[in-house]
Amino acid sequence: MSTVPCSITAKAMTSHHHIDHKTQQRALPLRGLQYEPIVIELARKIEQEPGWKENFDLAIEQAKASGIKEMDKISNMDDFYKYCHDWLFWVPTEKETGKEVYFQLCLFYFVFNQKAIRDLQSPIRPGEGGKPLTWLSAWLVSYAIKLGEFLDTPESLTKASLDSFFAAPDYNMGDYMQPRGGWRTFNAFFARDFKPGYRPIAAISDPTVITSPADCTYGGQFEIRSDSGVDIKHIHWPISELLAGSPYKDRFNNGLFTHSFLGPADYHRQHAPVGGRVLEARVIQGQVYLEVNPKTDEDGRLTLSPQRKLHNKVDHQDVTAPLGVEFDAPDTPGYQFVQTRGLVVLETAIGLIAVVPMGMAQVSSVILTAEEGVTLRKGEEISYFQFGGSDIVLVFEAKSNISMTAQVGTHYKVGNRIAQAYPVE
User: Fold this and answer.
1) CB distance 367 to 333 below 8 Å
2) Does residue 37 or residue 97 have the better pLDDT?
3) pTM to 2 decimals?
4) Same domain, 131 and 209
5) pLDDT exceeds 70 at position 58
6) Quick one: which of 109, 357, 338, 140 has its CA closest to 232?
7) In the chain, which end has fewer C-beta atoms inside a 10 angstrom radius, N or C?
8) Domain assignment of residue 235, given as a range
9) Are residues 133 and 18 in the same domain?
10) Where are the alpha helices (DSSP H) in 230-331?
């Protein structure tokens, strides 16, 4: 069966925030270096907007004061501009720990998460989905797209960089097929496919057995209330916002919302958890976001760990990691309602299932391979990501009567059993 990819491009951004880089000059007088237009755009905005320079200078001070080792090389905004420029041409490489890609993602967002500039970005709270992004949040989307353009070039993958991933045990490179001639770009490598037989599907002919749609760590489930929302960390999130106006949104009243987290080392293609007909398949443009917190590394120095942060309607309610406590990919639900994401609604024998592959940080490219009107077997591919970490959300109807067997904090592979349905009419 042929598929037609559907992906996010710069055109997906609202015209109000569109940044025309062709009109930008190629250089900014910062330490005499050449900068990409996207970096120039940020620097000019900071210089021209009242109060922004002071706020960004303070953000660098706040990030520096945290004592994290990644900030050793950044002391001021000139250093940060250079970092933003250099990252646009970074050839991703790994270390044996499998954390290098994470650390690159974390440092960029750690600065933008500082209190001094947090309010310049679109908030993570109910009611924000679908609203125009603030200038700075729109710039972050543009930056992510620009980075993705480089990762689609042959220069983004070298023999040495590829070898570094094979040397990192967490990547389990023996599970994957290399195409004839090898992967030609980093994004092609990142979306690699597994060898036949490496992801067997549990109870493939039984629609009451729900299987993991991704290689991911299970994060938990929340009941959808009768007013069609879920309560997460004392904040009420309408399912209609997550599904962004889907004609099927009301079918999920009183149902179940689940979420799981994918790390950079995970397989980044997603598959149908149950067989069924594709009623809806589209990409929803939103924010690119990552919250990070300090943790202590093996040498006793503070380093960074990814996490999401929720903003309460009334005041900031920060979910933070106490210093000295190491988090293992903490993943606070809620940000999914405003983030760039895909949406695939399946009509199955147990009821409707919404599969929502979720971009995170620089994973702003969610590519759908499932087409509306097509019937998929359990385990067939529906989408894939490019670069970074990400989430996947499943939403079930009440009549599916789902009992989750997955355990919070446990990693599951595509095709592993995660739930049992006891459908009722």
Assistant:
1) no
2) 37
3) 0.78
4) no
5) yes
6) 338
7) C
8) 198-289+327-421
9) yes
10) 239-242
